[in-house]
Amino acid sequence: MNRTRIVFTTRWIAAFIVFAMIYCCNTRDHFNKFSDPELIKLAEFTDRRTTDSLLTYLKSKQPMLRVEAAYALASVRDPKAVDALHASLKDHVPEVRAASAYALGQTLHPSSITPLSLQLNAEANSAAFIAIAEALGKIAGGLHASNAAAELVENAVNSISNMERIDSIGTHAFAKAAFWLHNGGWEDTRFINKLAALFPEQSTINKRMIAFAMGRYRGPWYTDTLQVNRFLNSLQQEPDTLCIVAAMPVAGRTASALAAEYISKQLSNSDNNTELLVSACRASGKNAGVSAQKIEPLLQHKHLSVVLEACAALSGKQLNSEEINRVKQSMNSLPVAAQAAVVRMLHGQGDTLDVKVWISKIDQNLQPYERLACIRALGATGKSAAICFEQALKNPDILQANAYTEAFIEAHNQKDLEFSDTYASALIALTDRGDIGITALCAAEIRSANLTNEEKTNCNEVLNKHLNNLSLPKEVETANEIIKTINAIGKESRDEIKVAFNHPIDWEFVKSIPRKQRAQILTSKGIIEIELHVEEAPGSVASFIQLCKEGFYDGKSFHRVVPNFVIQGGCPRGDGMGGTDYTLRSEFRLHDYRTGSVGLASSGPDTESCQWFITHIPTPHLEGRYTIFAHVTEGMDIVDQIQIGDTIQRIVMLDQ
Predict the structure, then answer these.
(1) Cα(42)–Cα(470) distance, rounded to whole angstroms?
(2) Per-domain residue ranges for the chain?
(3) Contact assessment for residue 86 and residue 73, using Cβ atoms and an 8 Å cutoff
(4) What is the DSSP string of 122-187?
(5) Whose CA is closest to 480, among 428, 440, 434?
(6) How far is CA 264 from the centre of its chain?
(7) pLDDT at residue 400 above 50?
(8) Contact at 8 Å (CB) between 519 and 530?
(9) Which of 370, 451, 469, 477 has the fewest CB atoms within 10 Å, i.e. the most exposed one?
């Protein structure tokens, strides 16, 4: 009897321990770090961009607060913090050093090159070492892109080239630094030669980073057929899809026969791999050695993205009469968006685009975004300029009017132009329609158009009028587009608008968000599940959840899809120009834009609002430019199926 009682009690104790462990784990996931009032205080300083207050936290006795302060300064990007961040590169806690290096890379201040270079070979911690190398590459690449501080750029290049660490971590750090230098237009062959030599013996993660770094290079190395072919030979043995996708631009920019052969092989052997086919199509469009015959069969591919990329690739090729006839005969079996792409491509091959016939196609019972694709196809011929201008001016559907504006601008630059009015007067008339999307398009075109001084003066007056009528911060993107044009046409000089703080974070609401809050995005193609990162992007996550609960996203469309890049949705207008009445602060942390990253769209620092995107593949060039506030946990196959016009039915939060 006593023994039974002991066993019974033991079982209850064991059950209690298990229950307690589960409860503690669930509790830990339920509460986020902002239950700590000190972290709320620090985050509030970040949101309000109060640099001086953040600098006091950078000297805190608590390592966690120093780390958080460094990341906060990465979002603020105030040059005033640079000296303090330099000192933090010597902090005894490696996480502080890594976060400080990241913040310096975000600030892009030339003075950071020397302290980062000095710390590089002294750094023993792997994460901090990679962060320092990447920051060096990012700053040097940014300076090179703006033709500034050439001597400091060369110093950074030498520091990166001479890194003493040669293990896997050293290789990854080198590839990240090279990526940012190449992204900034660096054409010296030192980096790409070393990357190509390192590639064959690396781990998959290092190979991917090397491939991305090589894919960003656009210098003279491609003319060295021997070096390029050595790399292509190693690439032919590579089984990893992402490595091949990232490296495909190398084959596209190379004139060797081996490159053309490799691309053609991918076009023929990758039937079920959309990512590979899209990347191969893009490479084939740039590589003169790949024939139209290799690309043309992909016009019948089951995936719309592949068809569209094949059309784009064929636009740079010369089809024979048999191929043209075959394409024309099979065109009606294609989706409408693909038909529009084929019409544009065929027009470039010399097949006349009959404007009246195509207008009748637009007038058919099409889905809204199918109609927009058809409208934009009119831009392929100058003979459509008059009808496009008329519709852009008068069409009551604002999305169609915007599409007609795009088509008019493109048509006006075609050789077969038929349009009687002056271009400046037409752009002014369209701007006077008063739509922010059309105004932004016209402002950008005025900037590049060949106008007389009198026309520039007239445009300047109209642009200033509309600038004063814009609603800020909601319409800041159009405002800055106008300011760029006013500055470019030389009539006056204005600073672009930096959005002021306008949307305080509700910290009580933030504290209620579970640390690993999940959400389901119910789309017309299926369900995508994401995990929100409230601890990394509290303002962004809070805004997203509140908009979801209000039903803001219900029925919104995915208005932008770029294969092998992103799907984007959440715009209240449906064309990417819409937003809320408030803007959010950019929130950055040290992590990678990997496959399935969910980020907020923006038109510059601190202009985020309601639009968001999901990445198809890793996109390292977005890191530090767009807030990551979530990642996809389930449904990447659905993300890959989304096309323009697919809808967000609703977004629901899942219980923890």
Answers:
(1) 34
(2) 2-30, 31-106, 507-654
(3) no
(4) T---HHHHHHHHHHHHHHHHHHHHTT--HHHHHHHHHHHHT-S--SHHHHHHHHHHHHHHHHTT--
(5) 440
(6) 28
(7) yes
(8) yes
(9) 469
Residue 77: partners with Cβ closer than 8 Å, 6 or more residues away:
103, 106, 107, 108, 605
Work out the percent of the chain whose per-residue pLDDT is above 90.
Answer: 87
What pLDDT band is residue 28 in, cutting at 50, 70 and 90? low
| Residue 557: DSSP 8-state | E
- pLDDT tens, 474-485? 999 999 999 999
Q: Are strands 597-600 and 612-615 parallel, antiparallel or unpaired?
A: antiparallel
Residue range 507-654 forms a domain whose CATH class is mainly beta
Task: Give the mean model confidence (pLDDT) for residues 10-26.
Answer: 43
**What pLDDT score does 381 carry?**
95
Q: What is the pLDDT of residues 436-476, one digit of tens each?
A: 999 999 999 999 999 999 999 999 999 999 999 999 999 99
Could you tell me the two tokens for 266? 């991918």
Q: Do the Cβ atoms of 63 and 96 come closer than 8 Å?
A: yes
C-alpha R_g of the chain: 27
Phi (first) and psi of residue 459, to 5 degrees: -65, -40
Task: Give the 3-state secondary structure percentages of the chain, helix then strand then coil, rounded to 5.
Answer: 60, 5, 30
CATH 3.30.1490.190 fits 31-106, yes or no: no
Give the model confidence (pLDDT) of 119-175 as tens digits. 998 999 999 999 999 999 999 999 999 999 999 999 999 999 999 898 999 999 999
In angstroms, the Cα distances linking 388 to 397, 434, 478 are: 14, 17, 22
